[in-house]
Specification:
Two copies of one chain form a homodimer.
Chain A (H helix, E strand, L loop, with lengths): L13 H8 L3 H8 L7 H14 L5 H8 L4 E6 L5 H16 L3 E6 L4 H12 L5 E4 L7 H8 L4 E4 L9 E5 L1 H14 L5 E4 L6 H16 L9 E2 L5 H11 L8 E4 L2 H13 L9 E3 L5 H5 L6 E3 L2 H17 L7 E4 L2 E3 L11
Parallel strand pairs in A: 1-2, 1-3, 3-4, 4-5, 5-11, 6-7, 6-8, 8-9
Antiparallel strand pairs in A: 10-12
Chain A binds a DNA duplex through helix 2 and helix 4.
Chain lengths: 345, 345
DNA sequence: CTGAAAGCGCTTACAG
DNA sequence: CTGAAAGCGCTTACAG
């Protein structure tokens, strides 16, 4: 014989609260929603019972009834990257503040997995989707799959879609970094790393080329080096770069990890970053300030971007017909030792 | 006058599918759940309509009806730490595989925020909770708050609670690291970093002390140095350490970040890590393999821990009365250059 | 200011 | 093998 288990079976509902406080379910509901219609005395009585019974609101039931949703699907291409992890925290914080919750999915940059995760999350009827898309996402296909679902796309543009978009000011960031190196006297500057078919890499390259152009410095096409945006690949690509004659004295790197890999490559060749060769990164990951020499880079505040994405999505949910927005968040140049002191030639 | 908006208002439900395929709602439900009771012909007809109408299953409604839940609250103390981010990815992957979804909350090590986040997530009726608790969590209070909710605690023990617990084999890991340094000939070895009141730090210290003891080497109490488990604090504490005479030749560090901070401290003093001083870390973060000299450390596979935590929780949900479990996941020593070559004295 | 009634989208005995 | 009916926990007009 199984012992009766301490009310694990039946949950406390508005019914129980109503019964215990001698009012109807409707009144309890009004109390829960903070309606001014209910008398202070009654409210107090009900609230006491809520506490006494340990009632916990069933938001799913309420959502069903009102045909609303208090969740948001958050799909991240690479959560192991601190940039996206911080972004996710920002989203989570902003949502909790608005009584919502984030349904987490991560795709590991796989388009197939992204689709599976999206399918699974959709069944939980999110109010909308914040999507940091995997590389090579098929826009039209996704648009068909998601229909009129509110969506905010983060970081990478998805060609062929009409959704709100939030990204960093990649172009201006790369421009600032390049101008900084130019102002120190560098002329032979590479743009190093990233995949040339990603929108963020293209934009950063444009910023770099623009600054070079404005300064009247020719950018050798060999100075645009592609490589996967991580340390291992970057170190490898740096080795290759230094096997040829190029006369470079500085590099604007696609991001901090690329810059840190570049740094390792320099050190292998006995070159001192910041002294023999100047570097800039992008993102301002915590390590940028910690490494020696500290890395000049662009601060992008991913946590704040997360909050911003959540705001954008909630606005879109409220007004599905508002015009589509493109928000380009500013970035800030942080000058540190890796870019060195002015050159005297 | 507002134009009629393309069926954004009304969602397709089982009713619509039933009507379109000329069966009852019940039959559609059976098809959805893959019941063998329904005739192949009928099933096909229904499935065609499901596809044609673009029906998407409303899991929340089903959960309400069956008094079940397909979500799991995932509360992480520090998502910006790649160790926990990887853990979260593992949880997410395992849950999606089981038709569940993770409700993400992060606390930033704040007990107050943890409570707020828990309260918010509870209203979404998760089937259970995976909790990587903030430091100084009040066990009895939390136990009261969560009642009989299924909970799996990760990484840090919460005194005064009776929940399933998953953690790393901290003791054995630190023992392995210490034995490794001893085998290289080191005798004056510090245990460096971590907060002495955290359970993981205590366990690692015990492993260290056990190995020292077993080797018949006295561990000077001054060799137990406390510091916050990050690079900045560790570098600072390393400076302090080297201001006094200690005769140390090696340190078992609380984790990789502490070890990397220690390394910076060594370099400031002109000491070469791996040659003049041996180091070990804990976690095997990606940087451990990338840094020079590469860091000897303990691989803990956080992604797999996440999957494991999800499994544990789902089992607990299925059988709330099973005995409480403590699962201690193995760790693996990865020897790299930072621990140097055998000492010849 | 409060109560009775209907319904959100689903599932599940229970008849047929 | 299929249909009619009840109900999960909530909210919201609508009467009183």
């Amino acid at each position: 014989m199984r012992p009766a288990r301490p009310n694990r079976e039946r949950k406390i509902t508005v019914n129980d609260v109503a019964l215990a406080s001698g009012v109807s379910r409707a009144t309890v509901s009004l109390v829960l929603r903070g309606s001014p219609l209910v008398h202070a005395k009654t409210r107090e009585r009900v609230e006491r019972q809520i506490a006494a019974l340990g009632y916990v609101y069933n938001r799913a039931a309420a959502n069903l009834r009102t045909r609303t949703s208090s969740s948001v699907a958050l799909i991240i291409n690479d959560l192991s990257n601190p940039f996206f992890a911080e972004f996710a925290m920002g989203v989570g914080d902003a949502l909790v503040g608005a009584g919502h919750v984030a349904l987490l999915g991560s795709t590991g940059e796989s388009v197939e997995w992204q689709e599976a995760v999206l399918g699974s999350l959709m069944e939980h009827s999110p109010a909308g989707i914040i999507l940091s898309p995997a590389e090579h996402t098929d826009g039209p296909h996704l648009q068909r799959m998601l229909g009129h679902e509110p969506v905010v796309v983060f970081n990478r543009e998805i060609p062929g879609t009409q959704w709100d978009f939030l990204a960093l000011d990649n172009r201006n960031g790369a421009r600032l970094a390049t101008e900084h190196l130019l102002s120190l006297g560098h002329r032979r500057i590479a743009f190093f790393g990233g995949h040339a078919d990603s929108s963020s890499c293209q934009e950063r390259r444009q910023g770099y080329l623009g600054a070079m152009d404005a300064a009247g410095v020719a950018a050798d096409p060999r100075c645009l080096v592609e490589c996967a945006p991580n340390r291992v690949e970057s170190r490898q690509a740096t080795r290759m770069l230094f096997q040829q004659e190029h006369g470079l004295t500085a590099a604007v790197c696609y991001n901090d990890n690329v810059a840190l890999g570049f740094k390792l490559g320099l050190m292998e060749r006995g070159l001192r970053p910041g002294l023999d060769f100047a570097l800039t990164g992008f993102d301002d990951i915590p390590e940028a300030a910690q490494t020696t020499p500290a890395l000049t880079t662009l601060a992008v505040d991913p946590r704040e971007r997360g909050r911003q994405a959540a705001e954008l999505l909630l606005e879109r949910v409220r007004d599905p017909d508002a015009p589509v927005r493109r928000v380009i968040a500013p970035v800030r140049l942080v000058v540190r030792d890796s870019s060195g002191t002015p050159l005297h030639d």
